[in-house]
Amino acid sequence: MTDFTATRALFDLPEGLAYLDGNSLGPLARSVPDRVARAVREEWGRQLIRAWNDAGWMEMPDRLGDRIAPLIGAPAGTVTTGDTLSIKLHQALSAALTMTDRPVILSDTGNFPSDLYIADAVARQAGGELRTVAPEAVAAALSEEIGVLMLTEVDYRTGRLHDMVALTARAKSLGIATVWDLAHSAGALPVDVAGAGADFAVGCSYKYLNGGPGAPAFVYAAPDVAGRIDPSMPGWLGHAAPFAFEPGYRPARDVARFRVGTPPVLQMAALDAALDVWDVADIVDVRARSLDLSERLIAGVEAACPDLALASPRDGSARGSQVSFSHPEAYPIMQALIARGVIGDFRAPDILRFGLTPLYLGEAEIDTCIATLAEVMDRRLWDDPAYRQRQAVT
Ligand SMILES: *Cc1c(COP(=O)(O)O)cnc(C)c1O
């Protein structure tokens, strides 16, 4: 059983803050600053170029992939890290499209815009198109016209959870390749990419994996497809022998061919330290506690704030690790909440979003959130021009 008092002690959170936005940017693990300082001072500062070999910099993308793999049900050697999620998604979709003669990607209308922009572009470049349907209509829209199914398992706005096992199985039976975006799944709930039979999966490490702003993304390729990938971005570090400097591209083994260029070593040092929490935390326990905390938040807000409408599935098994409420004045309401030390976020057009992250969050923060939200609503504290000023990041 995971000791959540112990995991919380591993994070450096400001006193007096209820942080319910770890689904957007995970907090700082206490081990990160020293690990990054060591990478800067000792590895870069003293070892200089030798650190690529002596400090293991060159293996970092794959070593970190192996650390993330158990959290998503991937075998060792099937996950690598680097770049950003948008780039890894582009690579995975391009690879998936080369495995079908049907250049049609199916996704849902609730998917994250970056995912849809990229899917639309790669499908058109392959001579086909992106089709989107409502999230509930995905299963029925799978047909032999579709080549690739690309879904984000947990909806970033509502937290709605797709049935990854059932949808992947149905896609497979129709010869459709699958690309799953685990941005709001990895570190939030158990995922079994291998068990589900997914072909590709991608995700970011700055949300529930706490890797820090700009932390590298991860990409999974199933063992049976990895060796067939003809990478759309055949960079030198995805070559079988980068330092042979051959004029022609020869792909690296398996998923390593999704590596592109020089890894962001300092970001990777931060992620490496942040992942240590998973040595003492079990994702099954995290999921159970996240559901308990979510129920507490939903019950409390519904009792205290009748004007807020639950925008997430009520059934916990159909929800990721976030709870959202809608209100026409969601933006100023969230600003008023943040000004009072309760941090969630706003998603256009009308969503108040709260991330439940048991590694460092408990009943006390949930109760503070409910009480503060109730006060903001009851006393219309949000109705202040200062809270209507839209900032670049919401
Ligand atoms: C967070 C998120 C992204 C962000 O992509 P980056 O390239 O890391 O900026 C993309 N897709 C989904 C579904 C996300 O939740």
From TrEMBL:
GO molecular function: kynureninase activity; pyridoxal phosphate binding
Catalytic activity annotation: 3-hydroxy-L-kynurenine + H2O = 3-hydroxyanthranilate + L-alanine + H(+); L-kynurenine + H2O = anthranilate + L-alanine + H(+)
EC assignment: 3.7.1.3
Enzyme class: hydrolase
GO cellular component terms listed in the entry, alphabetical order: cytoplasm
Key words of the record: Hydrolase, Pyridine nucleotide biosynthesis, Pyridoxal phosphate
Classification via Gene3D superfamilies: Aspartate Aminotransferase, domain 1, Type I PLP-dependent aspartate aminotransferase-like (Major domain)
InterPro entries cross-referenced by the UniProt entry: Kynureninase (IPR010111), PyrdxlP-dep_Trfase (IPR015424), PyrdxlP-dep_Trfase_major (IPR015421), PyrdxlP-dep_Trfase_small (IPR015422)
Record keyword Hydrolase present: yes
A Pfam short name: KYNU_C
Signal peptide: none
PANTHER family linked to this entry: KYNURENINASE (PTHR14084)
Family statement drawn from the similarity comment of this UniProt entry: Belongs to the kynureninase family.
Quaternary structure and partners: Homodimer.
Function per UniProt: Catalyzes the cleavage of L-kynurenine (L-Kyn) and L-3-hydroxykynurenine (L-3OHKyn) into anthranilic acid (AA) and 3-hydroxyanthranilic acid (3-OHAA), respectively.
Name of the protein in its database record: Kynureninase
Source species: Palleronia marisminoris
